[in-house]
Every structure is written in C-alpha cells, then in structure tokens.
C-alpha cells in the first residue's frame, strides 16, 4: 500500500509512549499498535484528529504517500 504510517516516529520525537496516547485519545493499546504498524485498512478522521491534537502535529506528519512502481516499468 502506498500510504505509510509514521506514527512511531512522531511518538518518539515527542517522547510520548503508546500507552499514554491510547489512554488520552480513548482507543485500545492494541488498536494503536496495529495503527503504528500500518496494519489497518482505514482510520476515522475523528481518531486522526485526536492523535494530531494530542501530539500537536499535522496529519501529514503521521501519514505519507510513497508511490509504488508500476509493474513492467
């Protein structure tokens, strides 16, 4: 998938633990872990907004688009 989740990097930069963030935004640590690993197929904008508010960042700090090469090129 061309969308990459950089949440672990932002957490490390801010010195915030996953457990603290999960509690602050009201999701389980397991769901946050799946999100950090990029193993989710989607995320609610409400959750993204809560993460950004808590970490004082922009959605683009957490998510990035990396173009995948097209087969045959």
UniProtKB/TrEMBL annotation:
<protein>
    <submittedName>
        <fullName>Putative transcriptional regulator</fullName>
    </submittedName>
</protein>
<dbReference type="GO" id="GO:0003677">
    <property type="term" value="F:DNA binding"/>
</dbReference>
<dbReference type="InterPro" id="IPR001387">
    <property type="entry name" value="Cro/C1-type_HTH"/>
</dbReference>
<dbReference type="Pfam" id="PF13443">
    <property type="entry name" value="HTH_26"/>
</dbReference>
<feature type="domain" description="HTH cro/C1-type">
    <location>
        <begin position="19"/>
        <end position="62"/>
    </location>
</feature>
<dbReference type="InterPro" id="IPR010982">
    <property type="entry name" value="Lambda_DNA-bd_dom_sf"/>
</dbReference>
């Amino acid at each position: 998938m061309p969308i990459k989740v950089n949440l672990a990097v932002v957490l490390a930069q801010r010195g915030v633990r996953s457990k603290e963030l999960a509690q602050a935004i009201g999701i389980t640590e397991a769901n946050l872990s799946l999100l950090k690993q990029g193993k989710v197929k989607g995320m609610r904008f409400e959750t993204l907004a809560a993460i950004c508010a808590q970490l004082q960042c922009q959605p683009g700090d957490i998510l990035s688009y990396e173009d995948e090469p097209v087969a045959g090129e």
